[in-house]
Amino acid sequence: MAMPAQAADITGLMPGPDDMELSADHRYLWVTFRFSRHVGIIDLTTHKLIDTIAVGRSPHGLYFANRAPVYAPNPD
């Protein structure tokens, strides 16, 4: 199976990026940084980390009730 093309590089992230959630408007990617004890917000128009929130030990999982739709990958 061929690997998908890379869309962009996002540099300067904290250690341990793990779980992600996409905002409903597709503009922001929220990411848990498990080893850094933070959640980060990435602006997908600039590909930059724009904010971090200290959340305590080993954050794992994000869920937005109003989020971007999830589509199953095409099996072909």
From TrEMBL:
Instruction: State the InterPro entries in the record.
Output: Haem_d1_sf, WD40/YVTN_repeat-like_dom_sf, YNCE-like_beta-prop
Q: Where is the YNCE-like beta-propeller domain?
A: 15-69
Q: Looking at the record's lineage, which domain of life comes first? A: Bacteria
**Pfam families, from UniProt?**
YNCE
The species this protein belongs to is: Paraburkholderia phytofirmans OLGA172
- In its UniProt entry, what is this protein called? YNCE-like beta-propeller domain-containing protein
